[in-house]
Amino acid sequence: MKILIIGGSGTISTYVVRKCVEMKMDVTILNRGIHHVDLPKSVKIIIGDIKDKQAMMTLMKDNFYDSVIEFVAFTKEDVQRDIEVFKGKTRQYIFISSASAYHKPVEDYPMTEETPLKNPYWSYSQDKIECEEYLKTVIDMNITIVRPSHTYDNKMIMAVMTRWGYEYAHIQRLKDGLPIIIPGDGTSVWTITHAKDFANSFVYLIGNEAAYNDVFHITGEKLYTWDQLTQMMAQALGVKAHIIHIPTDFIIQMMPEMEGPLFGDKSWSVIFDNSKIKKISQEYTSNIGYEDVVMDVIKYYESQPEKQKISEEYEELYDLTIELYQKNLRS
């Protein structure tokens, strides 16, 4: 089976590439060549910018793929461009959406693929919903939509209160004995999925007619509280976690940038019904837990000084949020 993966070097797509090769698929990846990862030798690489529609149409002129898998489309314009580029060039277009698109506030458990899509808090999720709505109108291409939920690898810091790109601050705060904010009372349940487990099921959607014009989420079945994940990281570091629970609405009042990541995602309990993907996948797994990789995460950051970035602005606001919340409790 001949497939094209757009991206191929991210948290999820790296594992998907490896699994596809293991399944004897003919894999080509298309990306800008910016991020370098170890790829199996059989993988072909096309260097290009998927956002350049004319260049892509030229590149695809004499190519045909059984499946095109899009990991880096985030807006309706992105998927509209893809449909134009790959029309007549593939039997199946797989769009990676997000389980964060499911209805917020959460109204029912467990979440299924029939759970309504609505997220008034986070533009990322709103854009993914708009992508899905457009793709459901496409009539001349087989579309498969996949919704991952907080999928991680052996390099991802699992923290609820961070600024994108500055996640290392969570480790540094733990090392320095500084308080760690957990929204709410710390008991909300969060589903996380290792990318290797995700890939084990995902590959069975590729080129599978039973997956055409349908939607699937693929998540693990390991559940954690944010308190547990924070304690897990602290234990691996050999330190004590000083957790402070602060109501989510107070956090957002102080740190408006957290509205999307919290109200739109991580402040809710999320539990999924994976029955649908289990009927398709021949090897659904949920084997790897964060406890299995947390030491790898720490070693990765300790060996990568350039990744140890901290936003002083964000940390000052973080500390101010704690200070004012504690002051309000005393008054």
TrEMBL record:
Provide the NAD-dependent epimerase/dehydratase domain boundaries: 3-209
Q: Which Pfam families match?
A: Epimerase (PF01370)
Q: Which InterPro entries match?
A: Epimerase_deHydtase, Lipid_A_modif_metabolic_enz, NAD(P)-bd_dom_sf
SUPFAM superfamilies given for it? NAD(P)-binding Rossmann-fold domains
List, alphabetically, the PANTHER family matched: BIFUNCTIONAL POLYMYXIN RESISTANCE PROTEIN ARNA
Q: What protein name applies here?
A: SDR family oxidoreductase
Q: Which organism is it from?
A: Hujiaoplasma nucleasis
